[in-house]
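job 3f2a | input accepted
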Amino acid sequence: MEFVLGGDLDALLHHRYREQCVDGVLRYPLGRRTSVKDALEAVGPPHTEVESLIVDGRPVGFAHRLQEGQRVDVLAPEPPVDFHTPTQLKPWAPGWPAFLADVNVGGLATQLRVLGFDTLYDNALDDADAAAIAEAERRIVLTRDRALLKRSNVVWGRLLRAQEPEEQLAEVLTLYGLRPPFATFTRCVRCNDLLVDVAKADVLHLLEPKTKKYYDAFKMCPSCGRVYWAGSHHERLQERVEWLSRRLEEG
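job 3f2a | predicted structure (251 res):
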């Protein structure tokens, strides 16, 4: 049988299979009857990176049992990905992007929270717990860990190609068609909870002398108690958000 890989899926092949792939076509000998999902993930790409599967001209699901001689067209998602509508390969849709960032993309989690996106991040989670939470809470898993995305209960996910957090952020926003205006500075970057307005008098004891003198508007995280205000760090973050917005608008 042969896989015909769309998009950049050939770049996700394990090294020995990448060498055998010619113009996106990989011949794969079946040693036994197996599902499309198992065969595809054996050569490299996690199932989350697939938009649709066509076997000999017919759409199939991941459980389809392969036979020798079949042609499997593996189509990659093209931005913007529709996260509102379930498909044959994705039995549920998040409706609005809620993310789960695993331990190897903590910097991305922080940047998504700055923009106001619900992003769960806990570096104590193992793969099994992360997958279970993503399924239960209808979250899109963001990671550079193939093993996590190959778990069958992970329905939505992205194996991030970029390595730096800012590039990863642009990758995610582009893939899912997320554009400004963003709900910036509405979430706690430490614990993800939504911030609430708080009177200056109620947090005065937590502030440094210069902060007390120059700032009057404050927000607080109701979970961890962290206090936020529009100081110099806020201004630098705002400049980065504006740069990112221009980049997305320019394509």
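job 3f2a | The two ends are 38 Å apart (CA to CA).
job 3f2a | closed
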